[in-house]
Amino acid sequence: MARAFTEYGRLKKVLVCRPEFLNIETPINVIAEKHQHTLDVEQACKEHDEFVAAFRAHDVDVLLAETHPRFPYEVNTRDLGVATQKGIVFGRFYSPMRWGEHRLAERTLSNHRIPVFHKMTLGNFEGGDFMYIDDSAAAVGTGIRTDSLGLQALSLALSDLDLELISVDFDEEYLHLDMICNVIGEKVAIVCLEALPDAFVQVLRDKKFELISVSREDVFLHACNLLNIGDDTVLSHRQAQKVNEQLKSLGFHVVELHLNEILKSGGGPRCMSFPVERL
Fold it and tell me: Does the domain formed by 11-278 have CATH 3.75.10.10?
């Protein structure tokens, strides 16, 4: 059974995909557009190898998804869906360029005897728009990549769980919710206040969250898009230096990775990881 019911429990198993066929010549987000002709795939693979090594150094079991030249953005495995108390839910990609990635990921999961509980066929839902807040609530971003029909389908699939899904609407330029909001620890969140609805920010304040604020400019440097692997350890990168320092001041252990090249695809450490099992 896949388990990943918080954003900060100890990560035991994660699905990632080496960027062997990463290609942003046909950009599908505003970040890739800025780097359209500058990507060094060999360097991106070296950075991803460092990413994988960081997981293994912290006793995380890394599952490597199959790669295929047809899927240039497959490195961002988070968007496949979400692991829930009922099992893995596969969403449905907004961009046709990504249709078919689920098939390769499912083959890898199946090889490790990890079943997929549900596959969405209506609307669009991508895992970068799903954020566990605590054990009773999760936020679901509705922008360009997750629509209202996708949210309804997800709600139906999880209707028998005691989990409130809070819809968070935001401008499409921010790509996914996890670019502007990230629950990085218990009662700690990294947020871009100017990009989030006031009502949702108030939800976090009412739940007594410590908020680490980032600017709109920092959003596009992936300052929000970090990953807690448990025991207050965060996989980050050097472009998020200001956030890293604030996390350290709160007692987090921050692992700063060299990810300059791979970030050009539009995803950071959170986007590049699909948590399968957390404790």
Answer: yes
